[in-house]
Amino acid sequence: GTGSFGTKFTSVILRKYPKINKIIIFSRDELKQSNMFEKIKIKDQKKMRFFLGDVRDKDRLMTALDGVDYVVHAAALKQVPAAEYNPFEFIKTNIIGAQNLVEACLVNKIKKVIALSTDKAAAPLNLYGATKLCSDKLFISANNIIGRKKITFSIVRYGNVLMSRGSVIPKFINDVKNKKILSITHPEMTRFNITLDEGVDFVISSLMNSIGG
């Protein structure tokens, strides 16, 4: 909830939907939570709740989701080289964490769940992409086990978010500024880029129109 997406998403929701009752930010970083709270307008602070926790901890998710209507899942480990070096850490967050969230949402009778995916989950060539593909499958298949519950699980998949934390653009800018060259992984690599505003608008639209899947 305190990453680039969560921060922007929260500010847009507070601006566009002033009648919203409550926004819960769930993350494991207390400093980012504190910084995020300080940047929110005083009139909106009473609508905010901050839960310290990790998607690896299902019991904590159960508590955080009590009384919640909509969930946007943006938690993931994302750095491709780090995944190759620490594979099971990525599996615990991106796959087991996804399943924990699915189960917690089912118990708490959430109305809609939107999970953020990545272009790297399409025909994945690295572990990060593979973990996100597994996560996608878990959320989509959750629609098969909802029974009579009025809940839908949906996935949004998009590319690199320009200027988000950890994105390639700040690295490119730094390369050109300091080395006068542009570092690329492979000359035939394709990147799909969107702005943070486009990503947030896409998720809001999906929350309104999604039917599961």
Explain this structure:
The chain is an alpha/beta fold and about 210 residues long. Helices cover about 50% and strands about 15% of the residues. It has a 3-stranded parallel β-sheet with strand order 3-4-5, with helices on both faces. Strands 1-2 form a two-stranded parallel ribbon. The longest helix has 22 residues, at about 85-110. The protein is globular, with a radius of gyration of 18 Å. About 25% of the residues are buried.
Give the SSE map.
Elements: H1 4-16, E1 23-27, H2 30-39, H3 42-45, E2 48-52, H4 58-64, E3 70-73, H5 80-85, H6 87-108, E4 112-118, H7 127-141, E5 152-158, E6 160-161, H8 168-178, E7 193-194, H9 196-209
Helix pairs in contact: 1-9, 4-6, 6-7
Characteristics:
alpha/beta; 9 helices; 48% helix
Shape: globular
Number of strands: 7
**Overall radius of gyration:** 18 Å
Taking the alpha carbons of the first and last residues, their distance comes to: 22 Å
What is the spatial order of strands in the main beta sheet? 3-4-5
Could you tell me the strand content as a percent range?
A: 15-25%
Oligomer: single chain
Low-confidence stretches: none
Overall residue-averaged pLDDT value: 93
SSE order in H/E notation? HEHHEHEHHEHEEHEH
Number of helices: 9
Given helix and strand content, the structural type is alpha/beta
Helix content: 40-55%
Sheet having the most strands:
3 strands, parallel
Short recap of the structure:
The chain is α/β, with parallel strands linked by helices. The protein contains 9 helices and 7 strands.
